[in-house]
Amino acid sequence: MTESPNIPAPPKPTGKIAVIAATFPLLSETFVYREVRELRARRWTLFTVSLNDAPPPRPGYEDLYDSRTVVYGSGITATLAGAAMEILSHPIQSLKTLVMSLRDMLDPGEATPIKTRVRLPLQALAALGLAHGLRGRGVQWIHCHFAHAPTTLGMYAANQLSIPFSFTGHANDLFQRRSLLAKKLQRASLVSCISRWHSDFYRSISPQAEEKLELVRCGVDTYDWRPPEKPRPADRLRIVTVCRLVEKKGIDTLIQAFRELTRRNIPASLTIAGTGPQEARLRALANAVGADPIQWLGEIDNAKVPALFAESDVFALPCREDSNGDRDGIPVVLMEAMACGLPAISGDLPAIRELIENNVTGLLVPASDADALTDALAKLAADPNLRRTLALAGRRKTQEEFTATCNIDRLEALLKKGLGIPQ
Q1: What does the pLDDT average to over 168-186?
Q2: Angle at Cα 50 formed by Cα 351 and Cα 36, nearest 5°?
Q3: Quick one: pLDDT at residue 207?
Q4: How does pLDDT run across 7-42, given as a tens digit for each residue?
Q5: Which of 75, 98, 183, 318 is 20 to 30 Å from 150 at the Cα level?
Q6: Across all residues in the chain, what is the average pLDDT?
Q7: Residues 32 and 145: beta-carbon distance below 8 Å
Q8: What phi and psi, each to the nearest 5 degrees, are found at residue 69?
Q9: What sign results for the dihedral spanned by CA atoms 348, 237, 233, 297?
Q10: How many Cβ atoms from other residues are within 10 Å of residue 227's Cβ?
């Protein structure tokens, strides 16, 4: 009798997690969908939750719509029906969750606008509907991207299901749209910090959250994002930026600096990729100051960005704090540009200093200072050796501390520890 071959059984799934974002998938939020894809590749069962409807799938992104729940918009009917069923099937716990939201509304623990406070019971009701769907899927942990509405619903849903939750804060969710941040820090089982600055910020709000604060940076795949094989042409300084066109990115400062660069008779071009609420204003500014030539690409697929970087000499993103107090953490696009061998110039913000050390891994300029940005661009235009030195050091920095694999390793280890899964 012939023995059957000893075929190993396929690896078992690691655990079941729900990941919540305001809009998922949003192609500009590469850090969210990369994390989802990588954890799925590591045998985690991930259910994604989008508070709002996302744009229709684009080729190559269809997988991100699998196992996804939409809470509002097209999902509101299912959410309300789920809330009703959750209340009927788990009335005592549902009452506890709703009472928690009422107490939060009356005493948010920090200065909170009235309109934000009165939304909390409604968000808790939506969280009951979400919890009902997640309960049927056996979800063990909820992780939320952005500390405002996604974490509010995640916190209430986790309370309803009696499971842990965690969150990653980024930028405007911590400033313009902040809600219950102190209480979220107290109630979360894990707080994923994208920078040491974020850790210090959270610690200043809730010192007792110290043991929950873990450094898990947004990262990039430095194999896919790498310098081009062919040398870049040297006829002019090709400046590129890729971002959402909002005030905190400082693109108006970049346009003014580019105009001054051309006035100094320094051969240069500027390419701006991205859209946003300030696009019309920025185009008008470019026309008014006579900044030419600027190539406006509009929204660009992330998969096409490496080719754009291969045709460029320097990446500029003069980030700043905007008029409402919003500012960036560490923009992933800065890491991508540096991984692709571009010398990077950015605004001198605390979190960005963890990626760019001035005159070592890139250049930092004071916020909204067009003259300083012009000088930095002129410095790079005049010194190809400096461009190469900064580019090499910048890529090395991303490889050492900002790779996606390294940081997903950190997150996965923390999730396993929290769920009691052997490492």
Answers
A1: 93
A2: 60
A3: 95
A4: 555 566 689 999 999 999 998 888 899 999 999 999
A5: 318
A6: 93
A7: yes
A8: -115, 135
A9: positive
A10: 17
Predicted TM-score (pTM) of the model is 0.89
pLDDT at 233 over 80: no
Whether 52 and 68 have beta carbons less than 8 Å apart is answered as no
HEC string for the chain: CCCCCCCCCCCCCCCEEEEEEEECCCCCCHHHHHHHHHHHHCCCEEEEEEEECCCCCCCCCHHHHCCEEECCHHHHHHHHHHHHHHHHHCHHHHHHHHHHHHHHHHCCCCCCCHHHHHHHHHHHHHHHHHHHHHHHCCCCEEEEECCCHHHHHHHHHHHHHCCCEEEECCCCCCCCCCCCHHHHHHHCCEEEECCHHHHHHHHHHCHHHHHHEEECCCCECCCCCCCCCCCCCCCCEEEEEECCCCHHHCHHHHHHHHHHHHHCCCCEEEEEECCCCCHHHHHHHHHHHCCCCEEEEECCCHHHHHHHHHCCCEEEECCCCCCCCCCCCCCHHHHHHHHCCCCEEEECCCCHHHCCCECCCEEEECCCCHHHHHHHHHHHHHCHHHHHHHHHHHHHHHHHHCEHHHHHHHHHHHHHHHHCCCC
Domains of the chain plus CATH, in order, are 16-219+403-419 (3.40.50.2000), 237-401 (3.40.50.2000)
User: Would you place residue 289 in the very low, low, confident or very high pLDDT band (cuts 50, 70, 90)?
Assistant: confident
54 confidence band (pLDDT: 50, 70, 90): very high
Rounded to an integer, the average pLDDT of 192-204 is: 96
Cα 394 to chain centroid distance, Å, stands at 20
Count Cβ atoms below 10 Å from residue 45 Cβ, excluding itself: 17
* Structure-block tokens of residue 323: 């008029």
Answer yes or no: is pLDDT of 4 > 50: no
Does the structure show a pLDDT above 50 at 3? no
What are the φ/ψ torsions at residue 161 (nearest 5 degrees)? -90, -5
* Amino acid identity, position 107: D
pLDDT band (50, 70, 90) for residue 415: very high
Angle at 12 between CA 144 and CA 10, to 5 degrees: 135
For residue 374, is pLDDT > 60? Answer: yes
| Dihedral angle of Cα 344, 347, 349, 355, to the nearest 10 degrees | 0
How high is the pLDDT of residue 2? Answer: 43
